[in-house]
């Protein structure tokens, strides 16, 4: 059994022995999904009440400091078992799934959620867990534990962006730097920088360059706001970087009719928007999605400028 199969086996076992996981994976099967068709691509909306824990998570420094870290081993439920990855990470079942197979992968140490210096880990995890898409939410872009370095992984074939990248209807190659091919998405609502390469060192170098450009745009942030998806297939990595302007859109902070509790992170960027409240699932329309992406992402024209400056 390879590592990816072991992780899938762990999910099956944990569903059999952990009530919370059993209940939430079972609920996921009956969950409501609706789809918006945009011609060349689609966006799914998933009504997932259990995700309120993450969508409405308080991630300000004071709240974080006041709670026991749920990713540290000493605070995790004893029933939650894990698989060790390279003596650095522990692969756990996510008990609040969005994907039919969903993992949380904390570092074994309680260190800050920062991608600089850890981008190589997401590449390694993509290889080790090649049945999965690996993702990273920045400390201000959806990570519910901004104080503990972690990734997540969801089974392949679930996020619309995977097929959208393969069929090339919405993205085009705009540059090549060393062995890295860079693609741009001109008409996809979200500004994305996509990289593909078989060369790990070149990818890390290219990512670091992008990081530096983004840092110039947000000099006051600890790290430039971003989400990342990483996939390994046919011997190469595919990386999607979503530079962000905002954590949560204005609708999140509204009250009454105008409120939409939607806190976008990597999964939403990949084309599956999570609404933990049924009223939002029912009322959300195409125009809301366009408006939300417009607020939280950098627009595609500006992304192209960033790519051209590399
Ligand atoms: Zn911790």
CATH topology: HIT family, subunit A
CATH architecture: 2-Layer Sandwich
Provide a count of the helices: 12
Find the structural class using helix and strand composition. alpha+beta
Tell me the strand percentage band: 15-25%
Account of the protein in words:
The protein has 310 residues and is α+β, with helices and mostly antiparallel strands. It has one domain (3-309): ATP adenylyltransferase (HIT family, subunit A, 2-Layer Sandwich). Helix content is 35%, strand content 24%. The chain is built from 12 helices and 13 strands. The strands form 2 sheets. A 10-stranded antiparallel β-sheet has the order 3-4-5-7-6-11-12-10-9-8. Strands 1-2-13 form a 3-stranded mixed β-sheet. Helix 1 (3-17) crosses helix 2 (19-29). The longest helix has 18 residues, at 200-217. The protein is globular and about 50 Å long. Zinc ion binds next to loops.
Topology:
Layout: H1 3-17, H2 19-29, E1 32-37, E2 42-47, H3 52-55, H4 61-66, E3 82-85, E4 89-93, E5 102-106, H5 119-128, E6 132-137, E7 150-155, H6 160-167, E8 172-177, E9 180-184, E10 193-197, H7 200-217, E11 226-233, E12 236-243, H8 250-253, H9 266-269, E13 272-275, H10 278-283, H11 286-296, H12 300-309
Helix pairs in contact: 1-2
The structure holds zinc ion.
List key phrases describing it.
310 residues, alpha+beta, HIT family, subunit A, ten-stranded antiparallel β-sheet, three-stranded mixed β-sheet, 35% helix, globular
């Amino acid at each position: 059994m390879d590592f990816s199969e072991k992780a899938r086996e762990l999910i099956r076992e944990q569903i059999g022995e952990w009530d919370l996981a059993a209940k939430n994976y079972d609920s996921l099967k009956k969950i409501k999904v609706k789809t918006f068709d945009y011609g060349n691509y689609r966006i799914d909306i998933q009504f997932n009440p259990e995700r309120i824990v993450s969508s409405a998570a308080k991630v300000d420094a004071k709240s974080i400091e006041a709670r026991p870290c749920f990713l540290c081993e000493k605070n995790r439920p004893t029933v939650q078992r894990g698989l060790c990855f390279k003596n650095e990470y522990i692969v756990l079942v996510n008990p609040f799934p969005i994907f039919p197979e969903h993992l949380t992968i904390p570092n074994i140490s309680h260190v800050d959620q920062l991608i600089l210096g850890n981008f190589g880990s997401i590449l390694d995890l993509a290889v080790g867990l090649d049945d999965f898409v690996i993702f990273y939410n920045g400390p201000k872009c959806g990570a519910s534990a901004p104080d503990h370095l972690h990734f997540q992984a969801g089974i392949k074939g679930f996020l619309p962006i995977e097929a959208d990248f393969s069929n090339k209807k919405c993205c085009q190659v705009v540059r090549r730097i060393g062995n890295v091919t860079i693609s741009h998405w001109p008409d996809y609502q979200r500004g994305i920088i996509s990289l593909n390469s078989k060369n790990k060192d070149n990818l890390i170098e290219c990512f670091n360059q992008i990081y530096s450009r983004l840092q110039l745009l947000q000099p006051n942030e600890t790290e430039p706001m971003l989400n990342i998806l990483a996939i390994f297939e046919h011997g190469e990595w595919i990386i999607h970087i979503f530079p962000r302007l905002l954590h949560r859109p204005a609708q999140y902070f509204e009250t009454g009719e105008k409120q939409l509790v939607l806190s976008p992170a990597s999964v939403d960027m990949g084309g599956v928007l999570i609404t933990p409240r049924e009223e939002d699932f029912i009322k959300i329309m195409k125009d809301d999605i366009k408006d939300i992406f417009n607020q939280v992402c950098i627009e595609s024209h500006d992304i192209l400028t960033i790519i051209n400056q590399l």
